[in-house]
Amino acid sequence: MLKPLMRLLSSLLRPFGGRGGGAGRGSGDGAAGREGREGLLWYRDLGRCAGGEFSVAVIQANQVLEDQSQIESGSFGTFVGVYDGHGGPDAARYVCDHLFSHFREISSGSQGVTCDGIRRAFVATEEGFIERVSQLWNTRPDIATAGSCCLVGVICQETLYVANLGDSRAVLGRKVGNTGEIAAIALSSEHNANVEAVRQELKAQHPNDPQIVILKHGVWRVKGIIQVSRSIGDAYMKYAQYNREPINSKFRIAEPMNMPILTANPSIMSHHLQPSDSFLIFASDGLWEHLSDQRAVDIVHSHSRAGSAKSLIDAALHEAARKREMRYSDLKRIDKKVRRHFHDDITVIVIFLNHEHMVRGSQGPQLSIRSALDH
């Protein structure tokens, strides 16, 4: 009689899944980590996944949160997704709902996890969202101007895959010999027009368009509109039928669109994890606007694992306050929407690598977590 009662209590106390509610399905033994909420901040201090341990935190700045994120763990390994939306939350939410499902379906075949399989998952997600834009065009044409950057990490046995669209960033913290120091290794390519190589890529792809990138108020933008050159969504920059009324005039391009201006083709790399590879930081560009790669790695290295993602956001907010010559305590009192004038929505996921588990092929707990903040 006692055992059935304990199982019932355990099931009632177990974290639950689904967007908006509380974001997590754990193994019932604390794998999901302790969840907390402080004003516009949501976090999980420390949980367990197939790749090791994780810490996650999200701070909201927009009236409606445009960042979405997820951690999935199972027999395949660990999947991390950071989706930084723009033009509203629609594209980021769609990616969070569908990209992992496509990845699991594709990678469940005989070839397993591959760079090509990850790319196909991105393509399927893009096609699905563009189809949604088509379906809603007559009732919600504004969805054609919604898009999302996508940063994905997959840890499968001893291999790390990183796929990226846009300007979110993945950084590896690597031990430097026996010095006790840690080095920051950038793992993702950023697709932002403020990067010279990206501007050259766009000019090469559009040789007959002298206005493909325009400098406005000190910021380079594609067609003078958007900074990122790759994304999911942004149908108005890919298909002429969506670059017309009734979308807002600031998104409409006067010249004929003979080919997509933006692309959903991700940059993908694979890396064989080494014993010196200590942890990974996946974050939206709101973090990197205020912290360098090395400073972020140093913060994680010098703090307790528990709450490390929260510590990174805290450091970014201190820097944002310093730039505006204001007190950190005053910044924290500013509510969402107005807060966006001081910093962006920020999502941070830190994965502490457990090489012993990866070598043994340990599956780790079944886990599904999404960030949870008001929409």
UniProtKB/TrEMBL annotation:
MF terms (GO), sorted A to Z: metal ion binding; protein serine/threonine phosphatase activity
Any matching Pfam family: PP2C
Ranges where the PPM-type phosphatase domain occurs: 53-353
Reported cofactor(s): Mg(2+); Mn(2+)
Signal peptide: none
CDD domains: PP2Cc
Annotated catalysed reactions: O-phospho-L-seryl-[protein] + H2O = L-seryl-[protein] + phosphate; O-phospho-L-threonyl-[protein] + H2O = L-threonyl-[protein] + phosphate
Keyword Metal-binding annotated: yes
Record-linked InterPro entries: PP2C, PP2C_BS, PPM-type-like_dom_sf, PPM-type_phosphatase-like_dom
Name of the top EC class for this enzyme: hydrolase
UniProt EC number: 3.1.3.16
PROSITE patterns the record matches: PPM_1 (PS01032), PPM_2 (PS51746)
Key words of the record: Hydrolase, Magnesium, Manganese, Metal-binding, Protein phosphatase
Protein family membership: Belongs to the PP2C family.
Record protein name field: protein-serine/threonine phosphatase
Provenance organism: Canna indica
